[in-house]
Amino acid sequence: MKDQKIYIIGAGLSGLVAALELEKSGFSPIILESTDKVGGRMKTDQVDGFLLDHGFQVLLTSYPEVKKYLNLPALNLKTFDPGAVIFDEKDSYIISDPLRNPLKVVGMAFSRVGTFLDKVKMFTLTQELKKKSIEDIFNEPSLPTLQYLKNYGFSDQIISNFFKPFFRGIFLEKHLNTSSRMFEYVFKMFSIGHAAIPEKGMQEIPNMLRQQLGTTQIYFNTPVEKIEGNLISLKNGETLEADRILICTQPDKVMPQMQGQFSNPKQVINLYFSLQKSFMARPMLGLIPGEGHLINNLVFMDDVSSAYSSSDRSLLSVSVLETELDEKELIKKVQEELEHISGIKSDFFKFLKSYYIRYALPTIDDLKASIPITECKITDHVFLGGDYLLNGSINAALTSGRLVAESVVLSYTPTH
Ligand SMILES: Cc1cc2nc3c(=O)[nH]c(=O)nc-3n(C[C@H](O)[C@H](O)[C@H](O)COP(=O)(O)OP(=O)(O)OC[C@H]3O[C@@H](n4cnc5c(N)ncnc54)[C@H](O)[C@@H]3O)c2cc1C
């Protein structure tokens, strides 16, 4: 097995897990990665004493694959308080645990986001989803989430005050057109686990996968240009001959015949500011309901993990879903919105850095929890991995990495 030339394209979560699984079967793969770090869409920079994740994202501790590949205690996870701080036109209030214990949310607070009937329906939905398996969720007919919520009988009030701002920040699209399967799945994961970040940034997750690798080699700064048959053409002009190729990124860029097969991905802009002191002072997500504003969600990262700021200032992460504004205008408008919700003068929010993430989540019509491993194989030499095969999540990326490796191992068994 050792002499087999197995190349994995991409050192994101799926590529790293694929390498781990191949090693377990005695292979020593080589990962070709275009950037200088592992992690793909999950990376963290260190800037001026702050830890800046590339886009606000969280690990849901209930993801089943997470327990297989990550040593959660070693990540020293810092959890968010469930619920959200809602900043509405008048003031701010907390809705404490709507996805886990809706009946426990104080009546007064709940009445600001929805009706008493919404509260009961929320409770019913939590109970239903706790019992429903992930497989069953992904076998359900798919509806746009907004339609699903209306069919379930939720009022327009709770849809616009809570569901829209909360799930827009997860689906990274404004209209909740994402499949109801993803809604049920994410809702279930929130209701049985916690949203968390590693103490020292999301990059710790791929770093932990990398540390588990033994014989795998990683070639950084090695972008792949094209794959033809069993040949890999690198951007630097070199050609590599492979026994097996695992493409652990959306394949259209390296396989021209796949172009046009994928919908435009979801995008997001993540802006970081520092402020003398957090105005939320709790490890909670902040949401701004309604339309016509730029900020969808915000969080003071050092309220969740103090290691995100080693300076004496707080680190604010703001997510913006869509805008035509250039960066300068965007920063100014976001600072004005921050002044509006906090009462703190806009110039006090010191801009640190922005991340324009053009490929944040794949847009997938038929979301899945898993696929048969035979579907990962597209030719005798080429195999596919990556979240875009299933659904846009950490769990899906880990699952697809495992599946594509199993598919490669199967291709070496005598009957294949
Ligand atoms: C802003 C944002 C928020 C998110 N929020 C959440 C969340 O809260 N919870 C959650 O579960 N998930 C979230 N996700 C999704 C999660 O991060 C992804 O599902 C996961 O990281 C995808 O891993 P992957 O291995 O499939 O792909 P990627 O991470 O995209 O890895 C692909 C790798 O391939 C490399 N590559 C690409 N092309 C080439 C080439 N030609 N040659 C060589 N290398 C190449 C890339 O550099 C990259 O390293 C979020 C993602 C983003 C961006």
UniProtKB/TrEMBL annotation:
<dbReference type="InterPro" id="IPR036188">
    <property type="entry name" value="FAD/NAD-bd_sf"/>
</dbReference>
<dbReference type="GO" id="GO:0016491">
    <property type="term" value="F:oxidoreductase activity"/>
</dbReference>
<dbReference type="Pfam" id="PF01593">
    <property type="entry name" value="Amino_oxidase"/>
</dbReference>
<feature type="domain" description="Amine oxidase">
    <location>
        <begin position="13"/>
        <end position="408"/>
    </location>
</feature>
<dbReference type="InterPro" id="IPR002937">
    <property type="entry name" value="Amino_oxidase"/>
</dbReference>
<protein>
    <submittedName>
        <fullName>Phytoene dehydrogenase-like protein</fullName>
    </submittedName>
</protein>
